[in-house]
Design brief:
The complex is a heterodimer of chains A (248) and B (260). Chain A has 248 residues and is α/β, with parallel strands linked by helices. Chain A folds into two domains: 171 residues, Rossmann fold (3-Layer(aba) Sandwich), CATH 3.40.50; 68 residues, no CATH class. Chain A has eight helices and ten strands. In chain A, the strands form two sheets. A six-stranded mixed β-sheet of chain A has the order 6-7-8-3-9-10, sandwiched between helices. Chain A has a four-stranded antiparallel β-sheet with strand order 2-1-4-5, with helices on one face. In chain A, α3 packs across α4 and α3 runs parallel beside α5. The longest helix of chain A is centred in the last third of the chain and has 18 residues. Chain B is mostly helical and 260 residues long. Chain B has one domain. Chain B is built from nine helices and no strands. In chain B, α4 packs across α7 and α6 packs across α8. The longest helix of chain B is centred in the middle third of the chain and has 39 residues. The chains are: A alpha/beta (248), B mainly alpha (260).
Chain lengths: 248, 260
């Protein structure tokens, strides 16, 4: 279980997270919604230990990731995977090498076994035949799928998605959401997904949390948030220009 | 605020920045050096980086070394001929190359060719979150990106320096013997008389330390780059300028120590 307790973080004197409290149970898929530049990615980077909080705790099965160092931190990070907004593929490696990279570096698998696993995972995300292409030669949607395959290949317990469909056309975006959902069901990982794909995302996750002004304003099932009477949530979900959320 | 106070404020801010940056760079190097003895040992990446920093700079070194030796011999020959001391051409060219010009020019060439590229490559990896991706895979980015470059720099610079001095001495030979008519025996014989192992070691210490300086500064600037293309561009420029200036300053202090 992931538990974020009273998390605070500032950058250059500007407080981005002002006491975040959030719980995600094992095997759950949670969508993290909220305005752009409001700290959603910052929260994800805290959960995976890329950033250290100013105060507060991030408990992964009761172990505070922000307090761990060395081998303990490494062991905890091995339980994670992350799909970055731009894919974060290694641009000097081919698609095959990108997906094989964690297997080569972190396991003692034989080359033939790695080859088989990578091909299977690429087939799972619909990328058979693209093995020898470089990231610069493939589309944005393909990059995100390669990034997903690179995560899945290590079979992590928790995968964090930072806007996995941003910049993609609606069809590809929907296909990727469906792919994530079906992978989540079959691999049974816990998923936290930063996304702006409203309302599509509501049919694909178990819970939704909305970040507003550095707090988790609301957290619940997709239905609960969709039926919320809170004017901020209502304005955000329905994309209305008039309301308590200032566009600037 | 009065102009004098403003001036002091600017100077103070600059001094604080320099001290802070030096401290951060020191911590960065200490962390990297601390990790070197621990696995994984990425020999493949070290060899790849030796190819990048060393092998691919060889042509530049061959050209600059040859012409440095040639121009040095040309300038010195005419000065020596005024005193009738042309026979000293060989040792002067050799000593200048071994102790000073070889290590320094080599380091400046490597900075221009490889240091800038290292800063840019690591900087781009930073802004495209490739470094974060390594981190999220529980792989230490220092192990994959910094240590191989540092080791490659330490290995490559002395070898490049050797090539530079070797071709430089032969460049001097081409001018002194081929153009000016000195005898081959005079040129090389006096080199043997005047150059000893301490001179060679001085050049070696310098090139070793320059190898560390270039890769340390370039990797640091790339690793902690700013935002976007502008951030990478600034880091690359800073890496080249800072490496070049530091090489020349460090050269003076190291020479003072070695001469003493």
């Amino acid at each position: 279980m992931i538990e974020v307790i009273n998390l605070h973080k500032s950058f250059n004197g500007q407080e981005v997270l002002r006491g975040i409290n959030l719980k995600v149970n094992d095997g759950q898929a949670l969508a993290l919604i909220g305005g752009s530049g409001r700290g959603k990615s910052v929260l994800l980077k805290h959960i995976i230990g890329l950033l250290k909080p100013d105060s507060g705790k991030i408990l992964i099965d009761n172990e505070d990731i922000s307090k761990l160092r060395g081998r303990k931190l490494k062991r905890l990070k091995e339980r994670f995977g992350m799909v970055f907004q731009g894919g974060a593929l290694f641009d000097s490696l081919t698609v095959f090498e990108n997906v094989a990279f964690p297997l080569r570096e972190k396991t003692r698998m034989k080359a033939s076994q790695i080859r088989k696993t990578v091909f299977e995972d690429l087939a799972e995300v619909g990328l058979s035949g693209a093995e020898n292409k470089y990231p610069a030669e493939i589309s944005g949607g393909m990059k995100k799928r390669v990034a997903l395959a690179r995560c899945l290949v290590m079979n992590p317990e928790i995968i964090l998605f930072d806007e996995p469909t941003t910049g993609l056309d609606p069809l590809i975006g929907k296909a990727i959401h469906n792919m994530i959902r079906s992978c989540q069901k079959s691999y049974k990982f816990t998923a936290i997904m930063v996304t702006h794909e409203i309302p599509d995302i509501f049919s694909m996750v178990d819970r939704v949390a909305m970040l507003y002004n550095g707090f988790i304003l609301a957290e619940g099932t997709p239905e609960e948030l969709q039926n919320s009477k809170d004017p901020v949530i209502h304005q955000f979900i329905h994309g209305e220009l008039e309301g308590p959320i200032s566009i600037n | 605020m009065s102009p004098i106070l403003t001036l002091f404020r600017i100077i103070g801010a600059f001094v604080i920045f320099v001290i802070g940056e030096t401290g951060r760079m020191g911590i960065f190097l200490a962390e990297v050096v601390f990790l070197i003895p621990f696995p994984p040992y990425l020999f493949g990446r070290v060899i790849k980086q030796i190819n990048f920093i060393g092998v691919k700079t060889t042509l530049v070194i061959l050209l600059t070394g040859t012409f440095t030796g040639m121009v040095l011999a040309l300038q010195i020959y005419f000065t020596l001929s005024e005193f009738g001391a042309e026979s000293r051409l060989g040792p002067i060219v050799a000593l200048a190359l071994i102790k000073e010009l070889g290590p320094v020019i080599c380091a400046l060439m490597v900075t221009g060719r490889a240091g800038s590229a290292l800063a840019a490559e690591i900087g781009i990896m930073r802004i495209t979150e490739q470094i974060d991706a390594l981190d999220t895979m529980a792989l230490n980015p220092y192990k994959y990106l910094i240590i191989p470059n540092l080791i490659a720099g330490i290995i490559s610079l002395p070898l490049l320096n050797f090539i530079f001095v070797f071709v430089g001495v032969w460049g001097g030979y081409a001018v002194g013997v081929g153009l000016m008519g000195l005898s081959s025996g005079t040129y090389f014989g006096s080199i043997r008389d005047f150059v000893d192992s301490a001179d060679i070691l001085e050049g070696l210490y310098k090139s070793l330390s320059f190898g560390i300086l270039i890769t340390w500064i370039s990797c640091y600037k790339g690793y902690f780059t700013g935002y976007g293309a502008e951030g990478v561009s600034k880091s690359t420029t800073q890496a080249v300028v800072m490496s070049s200036v530091t090489i020349l300053i460090w050269d003076y202090f190291l020479t003072s120590i070695l001469v003493a």
